[in-house]
Amino acid sequence: MSLRRLQGKVALVTGASSGMGRATALAFAHEGAFLVCCDLNPEPNPNGYEDDISETTVDVIVKNGGNAIFQKVDISNFEQVEAAFEHTAETFGCLDILVNCAGFWAPFRKFVDEDDELWSRMLQINTAGTSKMSRLAIRQFLTQEVDEHWGSRGRIVNVSSCAANIAYAGEVAYSATKAAINHMTRAGAIDHARDYININCIAPGVVATGMARGNLENQDILKTMRGATPWPRLGVPNDIAQAILFFCLPESQWITGQVLSVDGGMTLGVPAG
Ligand SMILES: NC(=O)c1ccc[n+]([C@@H]2O[C@H](COP(=O)([O-])OP(=O)(O)OC[C@H]3O[C@@H](n4cnc5c(N)ncnc54)[C@H](O)[C@@H]3O)[C@@H](O)[C@H]2O)c1
């Protein structure tokens, strides 16, 4: 039997109960990683499209013979974030991969109608939460040796949005806090390349998850999203999970600071009608 590609690696995934985070956790477990599944709750977002939505991510992984624990974390609560890293170190003794998938989106509204509370929440979850998670992961990575075969001391993969690359109507706070993640990726990667720590980012297009269901069920918004996506279908969580997985394999060890659009071509330009 061929060795699985993340055999024995310890991976912490935020937003792991649903959507892209869940698909990533399942893909990593399939490749032999031990998972720390972090989320607000173990149960999936009830609006999600998962076939096995009645089961938690940890239950699915364990049922399939994998190794995973759930850790309750709101990434905007720094005490909970610190506790998650302490618990990971106590349980597994190390951390190899962090995937920052948890994020906050709010229904479309014009810039003028955004309020301070919305901005504060977006900044605290999307930007400060991702930063805090990343800094604690890097501190842990720096206590560990470089894995010669893997080529790294540790890897971080962030999840931003196509809205971080080009402007979309009605989501200024979301776009700006996700654009901060894109640049945190580049600037952080420069600081830690010499440490053999890779930091990359996926910028998803429209993906069928619980977060997107409200838009996908609104015929006007759905039409706009389909029209803006050149590829003939919208995204599914595994499209994102497989790209995140690539950023964690030995083959991608010389890639750092990159933001990869996985969006069916949405950010390329204006598609044919
Ligand atoms: N679905 C899309 O079309 C789309 C497009 C671009 C980017 N994104 C981004 O993708 C990421 C994943 O979203 P998804 O579409 O899979 O949604 P989802 O609702 O299926 O999953 C998001 C998960 O994150 C968790 N979460 C939310 N806030 C959290 C917090 N403060 N701390 C910890 N966990 C938290 C939720 O409980 C949920 O389980 C998000 O960062 C989102 O902004 C989504």
From TrEMBL:
It comes from the Eukaryota. Pfam families: adh_short_C2 (PF13561). The keyword Oxidoreductase applies. PROSITE patterns: ADH_SHORT (PS00061). InterPro entries: NAD(P)-bd_dom_sf, Sc_DH/Rdtase_CS, SDR_fam. Keywords: NADP, Oxidoreductase. Belongs to the short-chain dehydrogenases/reductases (SDR) family. This is NAD(P)-binding protein.
